[in-house]
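[job 0417] fold request received: T9SS type A sorting domain-containing protein
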Amino acid sequence: GPVTGDQLRLRLYSPGFHHENDKVEGTMFTKSGPSWTWVESGFTGIERGWNILSFPVASIHDANDLRELGVKLGSHHYVWDDLYVDNVTLGDTPYPNRYVFLTPDLAFFSETPGYDTKTVSIYYDDGGGATPLIRGFSLEIHYPSGCALVTSAAAGDLLLGPGDPTHFEYDDDGAGTLTIDWLILGQTTGAGGAGKLATVTFTAASEILDCCDAVSFNVSQCRFRDPDNIPITNLVYVGGGVSHDITPPVAAVPASPTHTAGVPTSIDDLKITWATTHDPDLGLYHCPVGMRGYYLAIDQNPSGAPDPQGAYDWFTPWSPDSTGYAAWFQDLPEGDWYVHIVAYDWLWNPSTVGHFGPVSIDKTPPGMVSGFDADITDEADRSVDLAWTNPGDADLAGVEIYRLGTAGALGSTYPEYDDDPNWAVPAWPATKAAAVAAGWTLVGQFPGTGHVDQPAARDYYYYVAFAYDGAGNYSGADAGSRDASLCYWLGDFNGTKNPNYFVDIQDVLIISLSYNRAAGHPDYNPVCDIGPTVDWGRKSLPATDNEVEFEDMIILALNYEYAQGGRTDSPPAECSGRMTAYLAQSLRGDLLEVRVLLADNPGCLKGASVELAFGSGLEYIDAAQGSLWSGGESFFIDSGDGSSVLLDAFALHGATGADGCHAIARFRVRGEAGDRSLRITEFRARSTSNSDIAGEWSLSEATDLPLPATHALFSAMPNPTVRGVTIGYALASETQVAVRIYDAAGRLVRTLVDEARPAGHAQVSWDGLRADGSAAGPGIYFYRMEAGDYQSSRKLTVLR
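[job 0417] inference complete; emitting structure tokens
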């Protein structure tokens, strides 16, 4: 009847598989008017899932007399599953709940137009292998009886050999089954090769149906015999032809771009690839050219084979432009896996099995590194000794170490890291991914239990270690997997000039030039601001205070002459106790001599600092180190102003274990009525581990001190020197005393004192100038004291 609206539409669902190079195509067509005029729409590619097909009403030949609406589906190889159609709309009238089920058309139909009759041909294809000659065959063919009738059947040319009589007959039961028999009579060697078996002509069952174009049939019985009446096997009906082939195709060779056979990995998604294989024995009428497809299987058997009932199928139609295929096996459990692949041709001949494996999946990380230790190496500057204990995993491959420097990563300034507002102690990463994300630098991968790291810059470095196995699994990290260390020795200020990178007397001279100077003073040197450290240790992160004073010098003294060529770096013995400081003083005329005495030494005194405050009636003259520090190489320095003096002394080698005189200070009394008070206002004392051993101090005690028993010449401080030196001496009685400087050749350089002096302790300074005011050059000098019958000389080194 007539139709209205603009479009005829239907919805088609395709659940089956089709190849990208062999798409299913669909068209809609109509027949209209008394002459059943045929009009067809353009081809539309059918995708997986739902598809909408439409036909313009305006394209119908006679929209007032629509006789038939149809759908044609086609594919080069007929490789799709059942399809069905619903939601048909004719013009503006919907036809709900109309489902049309379709099965693939297995025959090659003539493209000649005509819908009352249809002739199809059935071929035999000798696809390869040792194919016997054919004496005869019988085919049982099923067709849709409600749609078509068999009009006739005729023999083909396959069995028409010269001089051989043949018998051909067919029987149609009218209910959808057609039987065709054809054989060679008499004695014969049979027919071979390829050719046409038969042709069958169908006629529409009625004028109303007229559905020959949709005729489909299949062969359910396919019997072939050789000249000895032996059945010919391995036959298959494919796409309108009966094919024979007993030769397997070329085997597929599986490979993997994601995994290497035998190499453990934590990646559990496996990709398998293989090149397109081929069947070398294709015949003339073998329409589905190429491979039918492949069966894949994965298991833990090295010599396994795919079972078609449970295998992963990877069947694909002919694809002349394809060079290979790929399949994924995802979320594989731990273990050794093997992939097996079998290729099949269109007659289901299997190739030999191709194997790939083992694919070793290991997703269990090793245990964590323990006992990780980072420490300054003795051998070089910018060098850190790293040591650790590996976990006991059998598949451990090594340890991966990451480093983060305070200056390098956070922009701080050596060595005053904590003075930078950007400085902060970094968060320890618990995983490798966290370390990478936070910008930690990879030091390297190491199979052993130690490594010497040599970073490029002086800094305080944080280290964290992750164990990894051969599969690439990484452990986490806890407190036992990390540590931090300086890469240089605190107190080594002259590292760029001293090839030994050694804390020695030159570093003592450098710190002495900035001693008791704070930031902003012209003599302040921030490189010397190394103390205190965060835990008071001699190798720890400096917690600086922008001042060079006792805290910095005690760190230098703790590291003095360690490292290359120096003393063995053994931990200092711990000691405890509380020392006491008090004063003893003696007034002789207008000269007040004060001795600072230390008592209760626990046997490990490394350095002490005592601050004296004095009244306005006293004028500070000078000070010298006391006998407590004379047993070995030491450093003494005094810093005074108008109301106080700071007396600091340090044992550079070892420690002092006795009680005694820390320092001797001298004052001049300014007048009879002035304030002559003198008291200790601060007392600091540290052990060889930089622990605090300072206790109480007492007020000044007016005690008459005994005079020195003999004349004596003391060590010059500092020695070596770069621009000045202080020389202490003692007089047992008032006498004429002379102190002079001589060069290495014995020539007089400068007379420092030559006059009568009272008994007691005294000191004299040399500013490094000759008698004529010129600077004395670097080299070896001697200072000599003469007092009465007493004479003594000592060596002095002047550096540039």
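[job 0417] notes: The first strand starts at residue 7 and ends at 14. The CA atoms of residues 150 and 213 lie 14 Å apart.
[job 0417] exit 0
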